[in-house]
UniProtKB/TrEMBL annotation:
Pfam family, one: Cupin_2
Name under which the protein is recorded: Cupin domain-containing protein
Stretches assigned to the Cupin type-2 domain: 77-148
Entry-linked InterPro entries: Cupin_2, RmlC-like_jellyroll, RmlC_Cupin_sf
Length: 191
C-alpha cells in the first residue's frame, strides 16, 4: 500500500509565501472596513499576518493564507517598540507565543500584574481563560509567532478588559465600539 501522491502544482498549493501576505489591517482597509490604526493596535497588533487557520472566520479580512485544521491558527505579529494589543482572554483556546526577534513582555493576570520577558526563540504556553497581552520591550521592531489551538479560533474567543473598549470610545467614538461589538468583539473580561 503506497502513500498519498501529489503533483508539483498541488505541493505549491500547500505553501504560503510570507512575502506575498498582507496584514489583517491592510486587507480590512482594502475592503473598506473603517477601523483606524489604533483599533488594530489595541485589539490584535497593527501588523498581524494570518498564516494558517480556519477559513470560516466571521470577518473576511481575517482569512488566513492557508487552511489549517479546525481549532488551530498561526499568526505573526510585527510590533513596534512599546506596542502590543490590550489585555484580553481567550475563552477556550491555548495561545503559544514564540519570539522570532526582539524582546517581548508577556503579561498575565486580571490586570497584567504578572510578567515575564522572552527573548529570541523563547516561548510560553498561555492556557485558556487567563488574561494576557504582549508588548515589544526592545528598541526595534520585533516579530512574535502566535499559535492558537483548541476551541474556536475566531473573534468569539476573545474578550478584552473594559478599559480597551473605553480607549476605543475615547479615541474614536461610541459608534466605533458598537461596530466592533457587532462583529463579535467583547469588552467584558475581568468584570
Amino acid at each position: 500500500m503506497g502513500t498519498r501522491q501529489l503533483q508539483q502544482q498541488e505541493l505549491e498549493g500547500l505553501v504560503g509565501r510570507f512575502n506575498q501576505q498582507k496584514t489583517v489591517r491592510e486587507r480590512a482597509q482594502g475592503m473598506g472596513v473603517p477601523f483606524p490604526d489604533f483599533v488594530f493596535d489595541l485589539l490584535i497588533s497593527r501588523d498581524l499576518y494570518t498564516l494558517v487557520g480556519n477559513t470560516a472566520e466571521p470577518a473576511p479580512y481575517l482569512k488566513p493564507a492557508l487552511q489549517g485544521p479546525r481549532g488551530f491558527s498561526m499568526v505573526i505579529s510585527k510590533v513596534e517598540p512599546g506596542e502590543g494589543p490590550g489585555l484580553h482572554t481567550h475563552k477556550s483556546t491555548t495561545e503559544i507565543f514564540v519570539v522570532l526577534d526582539g524582546k517581548f513582555s508577556i503579561q498575565c493576570g486580571d490586570k497584567g500584574e504578572h510578567a515575564v520577558v522572552l527573548e529570541r526563540f523563547d516561548s510560553i504556553v498561555v492556557p485558556p481563560d487567563l488574561m494576557r497581552r504582549y508588548q515589544n520591550v526592545s528598541d526595534q521592531t520585533a516579530h512574535l509567532l502566535a499559535i492558537v489551538t483548541g476551541g474556536e479560533d475566531n473573534l468569539s474567543e476573545l474578550d478584552y478588559v473594559p478599559g480597551v473598549g473605553q480607549q476605543i470610545e475615547s479615541k474614536g467614538s461610541p459608534q466605533l465600539r458598537k461596530a466592533l461589538e457587532g462583529i463579535g468583539v467583547r469588552f467584558t473580561a475581568g468584570t
